[in-house]
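quick q for whoever's on today - can somebody do inverse folding on this one?? i tried earlier but teh output was garbage lol. tokens:
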């Protein structure tokens, strides 16, 4: 599909539910909220469906209060796989009418899809789509979109940042988005508990592949009492170390499940690495899920990193 075709489909339908992925981040929440606000400006009903609303995103999610209507058209944003819908998977599997994403590894089953792997964030696609819809981007929508593109590019520092990304950000600044506030909340504010977690993570860091790979992990005990918003961004720590080409973060989840995040500076394909374990993503950032024990998961990832590097 083209952006113009997507806009036409949205104009022809009403009563939208917009799906976001499990452990929602700034891109999926920013896209979902921006699109919902734009559709409402067109006189349509639209809600954002998420598994959770992290408190640090209150400034955008609180704008989009739930409306009471019977959904007729389901849109997913920034969702590469229906498995990533989390607790909403059973309710929406096979029901997605339109999938909008920027992950080249996208495997969502939907009759209508738009996937642009060159986009640094799904927020770039939604920005273009809202313009094609003929909706004026106001300050609230701009805040949602700026959150989307800034968080998925690490405040425009990651390898996925392009000149297009920066031009979109400039347009959002011209509209009046609260970039200083968003940057402060997203990139410069940490709780005391978060700082303590970073200390624990660094103390247990593992190096392998001649120090070209660094592995960190968080256990359920380490994050007890913490919200997902407090642990967001941990995955960027290993990649910041000089000489590290692949950073791996392991997050323990209940029932022997481990969520894996791989990060690189673009010279190592993080997506290819995670595909070995049934995952996917981008060259610079990807993820997968493993089952077992922490020791076993570490050893599997270490062996794969040794082979790759």
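ok took a stab at it. sequence:
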């Amino acid at each position: 599909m083209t952006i113009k075709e997507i806009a036409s489909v949205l104009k022809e339908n009403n009563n939208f539910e917009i799906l976001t992925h499990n452990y929602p981040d700034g891109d999926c929440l920013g896209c979902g909220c921006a699109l919902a606000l734009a559709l409402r400006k067109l006189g349509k009903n639209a809600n954002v469906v998420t598994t959770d609303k992290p408190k640090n995103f209150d400034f955008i999610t609180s704008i989009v209060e739930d409306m009471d209507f019977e959904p007729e058209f389901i849109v997913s944003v920034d969702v590469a796989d229906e498995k990533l819908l989390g607790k909403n998977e059973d309710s929406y599997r096979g029901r997605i009418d339109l999938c909008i994403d920027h992950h080249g590894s996208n495997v969502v089953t939907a009759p209508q899809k738009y996937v642009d792997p060159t986009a640094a964030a799904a927020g770039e696609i939604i920005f273009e789509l809202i313009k094609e819809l003929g909706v004026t981007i106001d300050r609230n929508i701009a805040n949602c979109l700026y959150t989307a593109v800034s968080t998925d590019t690490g405040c425009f520092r990651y390898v996925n940042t392009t000149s297009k990304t920066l031009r979109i950000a400039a347009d959002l600044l011209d509209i009046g988005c609260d970039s200083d506030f968003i940057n402060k909340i997203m990139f410069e504010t940490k709780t005391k508990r978060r700082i303590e977690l970073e200390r624990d993570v660094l103390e247990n860091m593992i190096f392998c592949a001649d120090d070209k790979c660094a592995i960190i992990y968080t256990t359920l005990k380490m994050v007890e009492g913490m919200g997902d918003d407090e642990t967001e961004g941990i995955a960027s720590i290993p990649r910041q170390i000089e000489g590290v080409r692949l950073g791996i973060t392991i997050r323990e989840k209940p029932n022997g499940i481990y969520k894996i995040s791989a990060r690189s500076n673009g010279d190592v394909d993080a997506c290819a690495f995670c595909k070995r374990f049934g995952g996917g993503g981008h060259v610079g950032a990807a993820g997968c899920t493993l089952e077992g024990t922490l020791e076993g998961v570490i050893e599997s990832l270490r062996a794969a990193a040794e082979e790759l590097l």
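fwiw The first helix runs from residue 3 to 12. also The radius of gyration is 19 Å. so keep that in mind when u check it
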